[in-house]
Each structure stands twice: as structure tokens, then as C-alpha cells.
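Protein modeling request. Please complete all fields; requests missing the sequence field cannot be processed.
Requester role: graduate student
Desired output: 3D structure, C-alpha cell encoding
Chains: 1
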Amino acid sequence: MTIELFREDSYLKQCQATVQIAEGHLVILNQTVFYPMGGGQPGDSGKLLLEDGTELRVVDTQKDVDGRGIAHLLEENSPLPAVGSTVEALIDWERRYRHMRMHSCLHLLCSLIDGGVTGGSISETKSRLDFDLQDTTLDKQFLTEELNRLVAEDHSLSARWITEEEMTSQQDLVRTMSVKPPSDEGRVRLIEVEGVDLQACGGTHVSRTSEIGAEQIGKIENKGRHNRRVNIVFQ
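Delivered output (235 residues):
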């Protein structure tokens, strides 16, 4: 299995790693800073730098379907590094950082809307959450103002771990209704926005809300009798 360095430090941009598996167009390393697609957050892109200076472009990162670790997906027809060799893994930091800002902003949105989350997605330019709400009218202007207030208040974000047993007894920490929070050897990771929000999450986040920057609520859409889709864009 791949050691997930990004779980402990979202700001790591690169690391040295040993190639465990290289086949087809995927590479699995013993450890990585690359976040794999999950929880609505896209997988990282970037590059692997070989010992001879060759650069291999990583176009996506996903959990390996066979459960062997994190798969770094290379460009089609890319050469493969030798198993056992050392590589430098470098993420596309600008892209990742925008995902971090977006993901943290969605946690702020969760603190403002009292409803379970039925779906969501994150991108560099806009993101969305779907909420299980019935007979509820959401005020776009109010939500925009409140989000920007929370950003300006510069709350800290931190991560900690609890056991799966503790999570079972605290179901209010799980906002997603259809996706089980990721666990790691019987542990579940919590993300806390100090004084604002606490919930299970495996994604990458900024360390303070002021890093999110100005944003605004875009469309608020009805997606069925109970679903309300709230879109967010950076200003």
C-alpha cells in the first residue's frame, strides 16, 4: 500500500519515492504526495522525475482498482520507470491549491445549510454541493455574504483522527448521505474549521479560511423534490 503523505500535510509539493509497480500506464509508489480522486475532489496531476532526468507526465491519480495502492496514471504511450528505482514525485501545485481552497470553502457552506449532503464536485473554477432539503428556500445573497464573512474571520483548519468505533457513535460528523467517509486502518480523519464546522473528510485543505479568498454563490438549482444544488465560484 502507498503511504499517503498528503493526509498529514496538504502543503507537501514533492517527495522522493520508490517504484513498487509499473505496468500499462500506471505507476504505484511506496509513498506519494499525489491525492487520488475521491470525495468529489479530482485526482492530482503532475510529474515523476526519474534519476536520469526524464520527466513522466502524470495526468490523473486514482485508487488502484486492485487495492494495491495509489495509481499515478501516465500519458498514453509514456515510458515506465523501473520497479525498485527512485523517482521524485511533484504535483501540479497551482491546480492542487485551488482544489484545497474550493474544498475548504465547501465545508464552510456545510456550516451554513442544515441538510445532509447527497453529492458534490470540486474543480479549479467552480464547485457544488447537493443538499437534502424539502420546502426550503436558500438565499443566494445571504449565503455569499456569510461565506465571505467566515473567510475574512480567518478561522484555522486542522485535522485529527478518531477510531471507526468513535465515528459510529457520532454519526453527526458524517455529512455525506451516500458515501462512507474514508478510513485508514480503523481510523477516520476529521477536518475542523475552528468554531465553525467539524466533519469526517479525507480531502486536502488550506490551513486558514483567509486562504480561500473571495467567492460567491452561483446558481441554486432544484434537482428533484428534496435536492437543492448550490454552486460556488471564485470572484
